[in-house]
C-alpha cells in the first residue's frame, strides 16, 4: 500500500508517495522552498504543490516542527507564530481536497526509524533526537510513541538545549566537531540522567556525518547510533501515521 508523506521543515517542504511495506519512497521526493514567513496559508500552498507534482489524490500525512495535539498546532519555535491554534489537518484537507494527518516532525522520524531503521525490533526506552535547525525528540517505550516530548527545549546550564547543540548553532557559531560534540554529550548525559534510555538514535541531516561526532561522545551508558532513514524518515513516518489513522 502507498500513502503520501510530506515533511515541513525550516528550509524545505519535501514529499513523495511512500511504500508502506518497505518504508521507502516510491519515487524521488519533490521539494519546494519553505515560504518566509512560514505562515499557514503559504505553507499549505507549498504542501499542495508537492502533492500535485505527483498527481496524488489520496490521504496525506504531514509533519510539523512543533507540538501537535489532535491536529491543532500548539507551538511554533522555528516557523511563523500564526500557526498556533490552527487546525492543520482541517486547513490541509481544505487545500488538498483529501484527508490529512498531522504530527510532530521528530515523532514522525521516530515512528519510521522504529519500524524500518535503527530502532527496528528494539524494546524498552528508546529516544530519537533530530539535530537540525532546532532539536526534536521522540520517545518510545516498547515501540509505542509518547508524543510531543519537546526535549530540545530542556534547559541545560541556563540555556535551551536546542540553542546550544543544534546543527544550526554549530554552523552559526562555527564550532569544530570536537566543540559541538562536547555540547551534544552534555545534553545526552542530562537526558540519560532523566530517562535512562537503552538507545539514543541521532537523526537530522548531520546523521550522514555520524562518524565525525558519534565516536567523540563519551561517558554515555546507552548505545548511541545514527538514524538510518536519513532525510526521508519524516516523510515515511508521516505516511505511516496517515495510513494508521485512515486504514
Ligand atoms: C520544536 C519541535 C521540533 C524540533 C525540530 C523544536 O524547536 O519545538 O517541535 O520537533 O524543533 O524541528
TrEMBL record:
InterPro entries documented for this protein: ATPase_NBD (IPR043129), ROK (IPR000600)
Domain of life assignment: Bacteria
One Pfam family in the UniProt entry: ROK
PANTHER family cross-referenced by the UniProt entry: POLYPHOSPHATE GLUCOKINASE (PTHR18964:SF146), ROK (REPRESSOR, ORF, KINASE) FAMILY (PTHR18964)
Annotated family: Belongs to the ROK (NagC/XylR) family.
Name this protein carries in UniProt: ROK family protein
